[in-house]
Amino acid sequence: MAPNDASRKSTEQVEVAIVGCGPVGAMLANLLGLQGISCVVLEREAEIYALPRAVHFDDEVMRLFQTIGLADAMQPLVHVSPGMKFIDDNGRLLLDWSRPQGIGPQAWHTSYRFHQPDLERVLRSGLVRWPTVTVRLRTEVFAVEEAAAGVEVAYEDLATACLGRLRANYVVGCDGARSLIRRLIGGPMEDLGFHERWLVIDAILRRPRPDLGDYSIQHCSARRPATYVRGTGDRRRWEIAVLPHEDGAALTLPAAVYALLQPWVTPEDVELERTALYTFHSALASVWRAGRLLLAGDSAHLTPPFLGQGMCAGMRDAGNLAWKLARVLRGQADDGLLDTYQEERCPHVREYIELAVRLGGLINTKAMAAALPEGALPGGEAARMSSIKPTLKRVLTGGWDAPAGQIAPQPLLADGSRLDDRVGYRFAALVEPELAETMPPRIRELLAARDVVIVADEAPEQQAWLQQTGAAAVLVRPDRYVLGAARSVQELDALAQAI
């Protein structure tokens, strides 16, 4: 299927070319289509990969699905996760990372399990809504050259062996760990110190096994670390460490796989769906942007899976980059705005990767004391862990910048709607009603000229957050992070000027 596959010309012109139509590329294309940006997505494979890969996303990602109008399509396809527990060889609980089961501050649950082919189908089906978006499947990019008016992209249609070219203002590489675009940009990958072989086993229950539970379980072991993950429906996953002396390929044979699964299930319990040998890495690209070339997702960063944040980080890349590209292309900001993309996203994803590496140390017991939260050492009571929400580096700020960089909640408004549905993928000024009444017309006009939606709502949730923040107004970016706040009309004026 190729949504909106227009007739091909020898050289066509688009604003953005996206290389790769995995979850990150498809999310970026939806966000650009939502803003009316013309883009083409070039994907080498003919079909969505049919087997499981990523299995977790969080409330920020579901909020992005809400932004692009696909949350209702995703909700029936997910399972709300109760969280994760870390246990030792004796079954002793070391670390309890339970997730709240209610709706959180972002108006969604904090943790979801999903089946990646389902998620990709939802994202790709969403692309047909946007007349400015074209998807080219079985299309391999083999050359990218900067030109005076943009970037020349050369590709091959693998179905016909025909060559084609297009010109784009910007090219975004969402083409994975072996990214061509990253190689063309240049610059080394920073090694964050984790490289281990693990066997990933995806299975489908043949019969009910409620004793396996809904929690993900990290089996912290000096002998053989392992992870159990409850997926959607009857899907279950095990990730099992491969020991240094072992032949990884031999471990993928069914008899060897079932032997490894013996502590949990038998062949009568599960049917093997996929068995794959992975080397889990931790790394960051040193350069995410070179002129008109940019990176997002696994092209820019690699993380071990112990936090379930690999795909989530890529989706945040898309949420951060899409509105900046649109503002630059629409002449609302200069090209320098795109330099803030790596400045903000790289330190943010680094925090997730470093915590995932620490948890990897706990799971394989090589660095248990360093991995556990402060005050929780082996031999004591189990520690409790909460989901982290790193703040963005304060690159884009204005007015009173103390709250800048935190992700804003999504309050329920007085009319029963959610904030993001009222605002869309735009800037929002959440303002106390009293300040809104006394706001000078000049500031209102400035906010309107910069496409900022003023939300002066008396809903208790919005009022409570403003009071908690200590602000009379908070300016929220399209990616839902706080640009800055104001405690007075003067600070609100400075805040409006900062957009």
UniProtKB/TrEMBL annotation:
<dbReference type="GO" id="GO:0071949">
    <property type="term" value="F:FAD binding"/>
</dbReference>
<dbReference type="GO" id="GO:0019622">
    <property type="term" value="P:3-(3-hydroxy)phenylpropionate catabolic process"/>
</dbReference>
<dbReference type="InterPro" id="IPR050631">
    <property type="entry name" value="PheA/TfdB_FAD_monoxygenase"/>
</dbReference>
<protein>
    <submittedName>
        <fullName>3-(3-hydroxyphenyl)propionate hydroxylase</fullName>
    </submittedName>
</protein>
<dbReference type="InterPro" id="IPR036188">
    <property type="entry name" value="FAD/NAD-bd_sf"/>
</dbReference>
<dbReference type="InterPro" id="IPR002938">
    <property type="entry name" value="FAD-bd"/>
</dbReference>
<feature type="domain" description="FAD-binding">
    <location>
        <begin position="14"/>
        <end position="354"/>
    </location>
</feature>
<keyword id="KW-0560">Oxidoreductase</keyword>
<dbReference type="Pfam" id="PF01494">
    <property type="entry name" value="FAD_binding_3"/>
</dbReference>
<dbReference type="GO" id="GO:0008688">
    <property type="term" value="F:3-(3-hydroxyphenyl)propionate hydroxylase activity"/>
</dbReference>
